[in-house]
Amino acid sequence: MENTYKMFILACLSLLLEFSSALYFHIGETERKCFIEEIPDETNVVVNYKVELYDPRTGGYIPPSSGIGMHVEVRDPDDKSILSRVYQAEGKILFTSHTPGEHGICMYSNSTAWFSGSQLRVHLDIQVGEHAINYGEVVQKEKLTELQLRIRQLLDQVEQISKEQNYQRVRMQYAMQYVNEVREPNILTQ
């Protein structure tokens, strides 16, 4: 029985690690950092971020003054702007994709008047699909039981898997069309 419990705990921990995709990066006052995320259509995306300013006195990072934030731009696969605005030093960005494909998420400082060219550290966590849903809020808002919540989570996962499969199917069709277009002239000339 104890081994079963240990295996259960280990499985839960591995699931938590699998869904954890947070990272941080350093950015200078004139730098722009972009990330590409492949997203199916009609999919919710949540970007959590936190900005910290390098403090040369301590050698660490501290919360920035109220004037420092991040300009965030999100572009769809057709290079159309989905979102472009300045955010505070810490927050959450929400958007929904309407076109399947590679979406660009770019960030840069809203200020070039830092202290002696300091660096910022930006913590970033991009959650796509059912991972973007805050089930704690859903439980409170809809007053769901534990079983109802689990069913809701499973339905959301099935929906996300279906969207991913459709997206991969479209990508495969484009790839096959490209291969056929490249090979066809070679076949006719031989």
Describe the model.
Strands 1, 3, 4, 7 and 9 form a 5-stranded antiparallel sheet that branches. Strands 2-8-5-6 form a 4-stranded antiparallel sheet. By secondary structure, the chain is α+β, with helices and mostly antiparallel strands. The N and C termini lie far apart (69 Å). 37% of the residues lie in helices and 35% in strands. Pfam families: EMP24_GP25L. Keywords: Developmental protein, Membrane, Signal, Transmembrane, Transmembrane helix. This is GOLD domain-containing protein. It is found in: Membrane.
Sheet with the most strands, sense and barrel status: 5 strands, antiparallel
Structural class: alpha+beta
The beta-strand count equals 9
Low-confidence stretches: 10-20
Write the layout of secondary structure elements.
Layout: H1 2-19, E1 23-27, E2 32-39, E3 44-55, E4 60-62, E5 70-75, E6 81-87, E7 90-96, E8 101-109, E9 120-128, H2 135-142, H3 146-189
Antiparallel strand pairs: 1-9, 2-8, 3-4, 3-7, 3-9, 5-6, 5-8
